[in-house]
Specification:
This protein is 82% helix and 0% strand. By secondary structure, the protein is mainly alpha-helical. The chain starts with 7 loop residues before the first helix and ends with a helix.
């Protein structure tokens, strides 16, 4: 990809490619999580976030196009690992209630990774004067934070108690 990262622009491009790969991996993985969820609110949350994730991919494509960047060709190994761990968890024998709690834990790990990535990329975009990109990245960051909050509420308000 790069012989050497020499500028913040180079690092920003790498971050965008990483996020693009991560989101595309999630578009494929989230339907399995939704299918595995037994709680209706959790399943609906996964399905809603899948639609958001598809829009997030479109936003990243829009940023790439506006900056004349090709975002393909990179694999986010961190997201691949998080998804693999989630799939391993989903293959465990568990009660419905414990599986729902495990799905939330896996999803929150993913959300926290995304929150970190989008926060960093938005700061880079702002610093580099890419204001439209910064706004789009912050929009996604807010969605990821909201999803994390909703997952937390589901877990704390009743799913973890049902898993006891």
């Amino acid at each position: 990809m790069f012989d050497k990262l020499e500028t913040l622009d180079d690092l920003f491009e790498l971050q965008l490619k990483d996020l693009y790969s991560a989101e595309n991996q999630l578009v494929k993985a989230m339907p399995k999580m939704a299918e595995k969820a037994r709680d209706g609110r959790l399943r609906a949350g996964f399905e809603k976030h899948l639609r958001e994730t598809e829009k997030q991919v479109e936003r990243l494509e829009r940023i790439g196009k506006s900056l004349n960047l090709d975002l393909d060709g990179h694999t986010c190994k961190a997201m691949a690992g998080l998804i693999a761990e989630g799939q391993e968890t989903m293959s465990e024998r568990a009660t419905d209630e414990v599986m729902d709690a495990a799905l939330i834990a896996a999803a929150q790990r993913i959300e926290h990774y995304e929150i970190s990535g989008y926060g960093t990329a938005a700061h880079y975009a702002e610093r580099l004067g890419h204001n439209e990109a910064a706004n789009l990245l912050r929009q996604t960051l807010e969605e990821e934070q909201f999803t994390d909050t909703k997952l937390n509420e589901l877990a704390k308000n009743y799913i973890n108690a049902k898993a006891m």
